[in-house]
Amino acid sequence: MINTDICIIGAGPVGLFAVFEAGLLKMRCHLIDALPQIGGQLSEIYPHKPIYDIPGYPTVKAQELIDNQLKQIEPFHPTFTLGERVETLNKLEDGSFELISNEGTVIRSKVIVIAAGLGSFEPRKPAVQGLEDFEGKGVSYMVKNPESFRDQRVVLAGGGDSALDWTIFLADIAKEVTLIHRSDSFRGAPDSAQKVFNLANEGRIRLLLQSNLSSVHGNGRISKIGVTDKSKVESFIEADSLIPLFGLSPKLGPIADWGLNIDKSAIEVDTFDYSTNVDGIFAIGDINTYPGKLKLILCGYHEAALMAQSAFKYVFPDQKLSFKYTTVNGINEF
Predict the structure, then answer these.
(1) CA nearest to 66, candidates 39, 32, 45
(2) Structural element, H or E, at residue 61
(3) What is the pLDDT of residues 186-200, one digit of tens each?
(4) What are the φ/ψ torsions at residue 287 (nearest 5 degrees)?
(5) How many other CB atoms are found less than 10 A from the CB of residue 317?
(6) CA 40 to CA 31: how far, in whole Å?
(7) 77-100 pLDDT tens trace
(8) DSSP letter for each residue of 37-50
């Protein structure tokens, strides 16, 4: 079981900045995110996209911002649970909380901060015969542990950054890699696309363009994948694993059942400190709503700073909060 002062649901930029603001007040944080890596949609959906409205950065790429924020919170040693979604939240008799993930991880925390962006990201599943029958039996919608594909025959499908990046990475690990894409060009970064074409030309991967997944077959586990070409002719590929990477769609998920006031899939908050209607639970970033709300990263940063001031009284009820500037006190590791 994990014990912490603040459990932050969501490891995107706003969740990471909440760690910084909490750290200045000596509060320890644990973050949990349904995605398998830190960074939220910035790392998962548009890591190479430039952002222009972060103060102090005329332009910064999304992944660069996340990397810098991770560097910024190093002195406060946050811990992470990745690739798991919070399913259950219980309020305990002493006023603290117990969270349980879909994989059974238990987290005890004095304060909950929901920084889940647009919600929990769920994979978009293509309409393919037999696909859902093999989930957990060879079908994966995310790569949580690349080593689990070592020496396997892996088939990936998709044309975005995730499909390209994992094709490149798994080419050095898997026994055989096949990438299936419906077009003859990719939506992902041009540099990554060129690397994939180069791997195909070198014979290190099989690249099937203008092709679509059509069926999944096996006996208990995947054994072969059906693929149709532009003439609608189906052929089959022997495979141990299939990774369809067709993007993610945000859903509020179990959060909707936690007794919070919800308006149009967003959590209503008090703008004094971005607290919810449940004592000890705060919501910051794109997940919340209030009059005048702007879904901007920099607004989430502001919300995180005010949240931390109020969270202090739950973590240290017997202490008086004394506000101090970092220019005076600096950053004190703990």
Answers:
(1) 39
(2) strand 60-61
(3) 988 888 999 999 999
(4) -75, -15
(5) 9
(6) 12
(7) 999 999 898 999 999 999 999 999
(8) STTHHHHHT-TT-E
